[in-house]
Specification:
Length: 215
């Protein structure tokens, strides 16, 4: 089932456990698009970071920086061949995480590396920002049962959620759809997904909100 929407590049963002990749995969399937995933499981430093953030933060962040820059440069170079793409990250998230996890000396080094990279990332014409309370994120992370994620604390999740909140408060680079994802079940509840598709189709400018289950 391919559905026509007025977008060429959709990026799905939000903190760990909120459902970015699940939504990106389903959108790609339904819309018949190319899927771009950040593939965090390929980062050999990520488990070390979760176990010992102080020692693992810098190599983890630099690996992600090079990985994301390479991926998005490849997307830029092949723009003419693919009419629609869905990604489960924004390039901007790299600096968001760096500023949340690195100490001042590491951050200065990271910024030097970032500034010397040639990053010509394509700009999404729609960003979907998924939000959920820390308790919901922690429960979802626990439910999916990935061994490397078991050390993740609610304090770390709160730090990342706060960073995302601040980032998107000032974000004006692309049309933005902010979604309350705490009550969405993209696997079992087709009605939720169809309502979200309607919102995606309607969001072509500005800042927009979707709360499928208001209290």
């Amino acid at each position: 089932m391919n559905i026509k929407i007025p977008h060429n590049f959709i990026a799905v963002e939000g903190p760990i456990g909120v459902g970015k990749t699940t939504l990106a995969r389903k959108l790609s399937e339904v819309l018949g698009s190319e899927l771009i995933l950040e593939e965090a499981e390929e980062n050999p430093f990520l488990e070390r970071f979760y176990q010992d953030p102080k020692s693992g933060a810098l190599p983890t962040q630099l690996y992600f920086l090079f990985q994301r820059a390479r991926q998005l440069q490849e997307v830029r170079q092949s723009d003419m061949f693919t009419p629609l793409r869905v990604a489960d990250y924004l390039m901007d998230k790299d600096r968001l995480f760096a500023r949340s996890t690195l100490d001042p000396e590491e951050l200065r080094l990271y910024e030097q590396v970032f500034d010397n990279l040639t990053i010509d990332a394509p700009k999404p014409d729609l960003v979907i920002y998924l939000q959920a309370p820390v308790t919901v994120l922690a429960e979802r992370i626990k439910k999916r049962g990935r061994r490397e994620e078991s050390p993740i604390s609610q304090e770390y999740l709160q730090t990342i959620c706060d960073a995302y909140t601040d980032f998107f408060y000032y974000y004006h680079e692309s049309p933005l759809l902010i979604v309350n994802a705490s009550g969405i079940d993209l696997v079992e509840n087709e009605k939720d997904f169809e309502m979200l598709l309607e919102q995606i189709h309607a969001t072509t400018s500005g800042r927009n909100y979707f709360n499928p289950h208001p209290v």
